[in-house]
């Protein structure tokens, strides 16, 4: 056990750190563990890190020092903060109401990214701590899987975990790919190869059991993109793609959950495409069809509110007007948001909001790509994380409007970006 614990934490090194850094290091390790085990602790642990960051900022200004942020870090923090500004702009443009104010604390997360980043950037081994926590959290997925599928009287055919399956399924996939990104690094360490492979397999198994169409779609798309990031030689990529296609084919043919889930999504999409008049259609559109109908409704909203949108939280109110005019399908008025971060941003914040979002993503992807080109440690995991966020956003709005999902986006971004930025500065200096 002592050997195992020493592999997780360099206790001698931790003792040399200041107390705030020790606390943040421990919180980063516990972040994914608590997140998949205790409801709302993804956002709860992020709040604790934010409070430590605020203390550090206070100490800096108290001692008449500065934060020593470089240009790229300032651009990142400014761009994330602008997501909150775009929320304010859309609110003032449309007039404030209860719907928009309900999202205030969620949008405040983007402003709180400043102390979050300040706290995390001081942790030299931040990626190592949070990835090791992710590895153990992947193993912990076995608990809700066994309980809900075998022992719970509430089992209804899909595993939920401590949240909705719409959240836990995609999160399990995201964590699995983050771990895949470090598999090669940890394979050279004794015992880690067994632990990390078990964790990855268990995460995928849990995601399959959630029967989440978003999780299935995310997994398939990530498997298709992953070789471009993980494998650098073209011949090796071809072999990896061949293996992935065999794996996906076998999973589809022999796993009932995967088979039914994929067909549920594809059949629903095909049905939606075949319908000539979506607005007047009165039948069941299915999961994918409903989402596509909401995306079309969001575009309709955006065309009438191009610059600032209708304001966060006003999607449902806006589409009811178009439904009354016979322009959108009735299913869209049953949802509070369009289940897509791009259409959600377009309809709620307009061109201003979507421009801010794309600039932010461009800054992150540029830094991660440069780190990947320079073979910086953990750069593969970082690229897989942000790629997964961008893909999962096609099916859910969570990364921008749900506290726990927003927390995953911001915390992992702060961890990877600050680490890559520091490593690249060292390489340039040397």
Low-confidence stretches: 1-5
Secondary structure tally, helices: 22
SSE succession: HHHHHHHHHHHHHHHHHHHHHH
Tell me the total number of β-strands.
Answer: 0
Query: Which range best describes the helical content: under 10%, 10-25%, 25-40%, 40-55%, 55-70% or over 70%?
Result: over 70%
Report on the structure:
With 430 residues, this protein is mainly α. Helices cover 75% and strands 0% of the residues. The protein has 22 helices and no strands. It has helices at 2-8, 11-15, 19-35, 41-62, 71-94, 98-101, 104-111, 113-120, 126-140, 142-151, 165-180, 183-186, 192-210, 213-230, 234-254, 256-274, 286-304, 315-324, 341-373, 379-392, 398-401, 403-429. Helix 19 runs parallel beside helix 22 (403-429). The radius of gyration is 22 Å and the shape is globular. Residues 1-5 have low confidence and may be disordered.
């Amino acid at each position: 056990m002592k050997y195992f614990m020493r592999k997780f934490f360099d206790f001698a090194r931790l003792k040399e750190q200041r107390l705030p850094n020790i606390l943040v290091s421990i919180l980063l390790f516990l972040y994914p563990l608590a997140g998949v085990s205790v409801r709302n602790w993804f956002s709860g642990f992020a709040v604790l890190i934010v409070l430590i960051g605020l203390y550090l900022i206070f100490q800096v200004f108290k001692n008449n020092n500065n934060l020593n942020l470089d240009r790229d870090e300032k651009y990142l923090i400014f761009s994330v903060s602008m997501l909150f500004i775009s929320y304010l702009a859309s609110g003032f443009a449309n007039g404030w109401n209860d719907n928009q104010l309900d999202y205030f604390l969620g949008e405040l997360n983007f402003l709180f990214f400043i102390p979050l980043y300040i706290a995390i950037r001081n942790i030299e081994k931040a990626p190592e701590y949070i990835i090791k926590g992710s590895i153990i959290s992947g193993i912990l997925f076995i608990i809700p899987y066994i309980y809900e599928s075998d022992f719970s009287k509430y089992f209804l055919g899909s595993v939920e975990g401590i949240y909705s399956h719409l959240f836990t399924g995609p999160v399990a996939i995201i964590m699995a790919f983050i771990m895949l990104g470090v598999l090669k690094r940890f394979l050279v360490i004794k015992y880690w190869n067994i632990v990390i492979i078990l964790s990855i397999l268990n995460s995928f198994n849990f995601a399959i059991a959630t029967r989440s169409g978003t999780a299935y779609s995310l997994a398939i798309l990530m498997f298709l993109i992953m070789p471009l990031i993980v494998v650098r030689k073209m011949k090796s990529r071809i072999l990896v793609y061949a293996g992935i296609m065999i794996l996906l084919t076998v999973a589809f043919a022999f796993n009932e959950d995967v088979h039914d889930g994929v067909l549920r999504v594809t059949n629903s999409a095909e049905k939606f495409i075949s319908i000539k008049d979506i607005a007047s259609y009165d039948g069941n559109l299915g999961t994918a069809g409903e989402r596509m109908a909401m995306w079309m409704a969001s575009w309709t909203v955006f065309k009438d509110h191009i610059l600032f949108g209708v304001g966060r939280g006003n999607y449902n109110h806006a589409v009811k007007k178009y439904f009354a005019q016979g322009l959108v399908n009735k299913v869209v008025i049953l949802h509070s948001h369009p289940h897509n971060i791009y259409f959600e941003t377009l309809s709620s914040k307009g061109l201003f909001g979507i421009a801010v979002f794309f600039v932010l993503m461009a800054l992150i992807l540029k830094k991660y790509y440069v780190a990947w080109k320079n073979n910086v440690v953990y750069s593969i995991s970082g690229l897989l994380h942000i790629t997964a966020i961008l893909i999962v956003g096609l099916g859910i709005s969570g990364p921008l409007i749900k506290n726990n999902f927003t927390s995953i986006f911001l915390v992992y971004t702060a961890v990877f970006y600050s680490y890559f930025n520091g490593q690249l500065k060292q390489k340039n200096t040397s």
